[in-house]
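We now fix the convention by which a protein and its fold are recorded. The integers have meaning only within a learned vocabulary of local backbone shapes. A complete example follows; check for yourself that the lines match position by position.
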Amino acid sequence: MDRSVSPEAEGRSGRERALDIAELLREAQADCRASAEQVADARGRQLFDKIAGYLDVAIQALQAYQREQPTPRRHTLH
């Protein structure tokens, strides 16, 4: 995963970044749940289920952060 900041992402708000990260975590969560159904051993299924649960907590935290962030105000000249 490329963790460098792209030029278009530099000016983005915390709310916008949280939205993007939450989407990435939802994708990883879906992969974990799918893997839990496909893994043959019980320990592996439990591991993937547990990780999916942790990702749910992280997604909820990002959503709470988004709700708490003020909407950016546009400056106008009078």
